[in-house]
Amino acid sequence: MNDADVSKQIQQMVRFIRQEAEEKANEISVSAEEEFNIEKLQLVEAEKKKIRQEYERKEKQVQVRKKIEYSMQLNASRLKVLQAQDDLVSSMKEAASKELLRVSHHHHTYEHLLKDLIVQSLLRLKEPSVLLRCRKDDLHFVQSVLHSAKEGYALKAKVHPPEIIVDHIHLPAAPSHHNAHGPSW
Predict the structure, then answer these.
(1) In terms of Cα–Cα distance, which of 184, 179, 182 is closest to 89?
(2) Chain Cα centroid distance, residue 166
(3) How is the chain classified by DSSP, letter by letter?
(4) Who wins on pLDDT, 73 or 184?
(5) How far is it, in rounded angstroms, from Cα 53 to Cα 56?
(6) Any transmembrane segments, and where (predicted)?
(7) Cβ contacts of residue 113 below 8 Å, gap of 6+?
(8) How much is the mean pLDDT over the chain?
(9) The model's pTM
(10) Which of 43, 44, 114, 148 is the most buried (most CB within 10 A)?
(11) What confidence score (pLDDT) does residue 184 get?
(12) Which residues contact 114 (CB under 8 A, 6 or more apart)?
């Protein structure tokens, strides 16, 4: 073999080795690229999972805050309603106290009220004999409506009229102004 053939053969071997090296380098590069992409995908997925978990945690915190705020608003509105009810009851009590002081001055209305109160008491007691106690100022009115109260009770309860004895011990006199009806409820 001459130098040209040897040189040609060496050139051929160098090209072959170079081609093999390039193919191996390409394989290594492709393999490295694949491993890089797999590793990158795993890291991205892990971070996405962390972000989702953080988002869910924050979403739960927001929901808890919303529930707490809703509950606080609901309680505040309940308190407002209760306060309004209390104010209304207080004003109704005050109006009733003032009206009670005035009703005794209208004799016909007062007699009718006393009769209804006696009938209502008899219906609650459901006794054949009752001891009735009243104020000394009301004794005349009570005696004037006693018979009709007995009859009214007997008619409503479908029983014989009860025996009503008016007590000689009297209740205290009427208050002189509307705040004297005792402590507020």
Answers:
(1) 184
(2) 51
(3) --HHHHHHHHHHHHHHHHHHHHHHHHHHHHHHHHHHHHHHHHHHHHHHHHHHHHHHHHHHHHHHHHHHHHHHHHHHHHHHHHHHHHHHHHHHHHHHHHHHHHHTTSHHHHHHHHHHHHHHHHHHH--SEEEE--BGGGHHHHHHHHHHHHHHHHHHHTSPPPEEEE-SS-BPPPPSSGGGG-S--
(4) 73
(5) 5
(6) none
(7) 103
(8) 91
(9) 0.50
(10) 114
(11) 46
(12) 134, 138, 141, 142, 145, 149
What is the CATH number assigned to the segment(s) 105-173? 3.30.2320.30
- Give pLDDT tens digits for 1-34: 688 888 889 999 999 999 999 999 999 999 999 9
> Percentage of the chain surpassing pLDDT 70?
94
Largest CA distance in the chain: 160
112, amino acid identity: H
Total count of residues recorded for the chain? 185
